[in-house]
Amino acid sequence: MLARKIDYMHFQGATPFPVDKNRYYDKTRVEERQMTHTLIKTLWVIAIVGILLVVHVALSAITTNYGYSLMQVKQNVSQLHRENETMRLDIANMQAPERIYSIATKKMGMVMPAMVLYKSPQTSNTAEKTTTR
Length: 133
Prior knowledge:
- By secondary structure, the chain is mainly α.
- It is 64% helix and 6% strand.
- The chain has a two-stranded antiparallel sheet.
């Protein structure tokens, strides 16, 4: 008895398909929709997490770039402060009366006057002070 009788074909254990084919088809379509819906939700979650990671990395890169720029500006400011101090010292050395006197006498050939005349604002035009050096 290798062949089965047709009556046994609709037996519950004899066939892998349910008796109502439309019911099985509807059940698989519902399961496919649920699986597709779950897959779409999962993909959305993965996409949102990916977008958030990209935004985080971009913001970190921007922050790091601003940090480096700020550090470079601070270095430039400190260098300019050092140059400014050096220039102030040079100005103070250039304005020293001893330096001006030595340049005037040695390089320009100037001499100190023997007599210096001063005019005071309270006195008249005829009265003048004289001093000698």
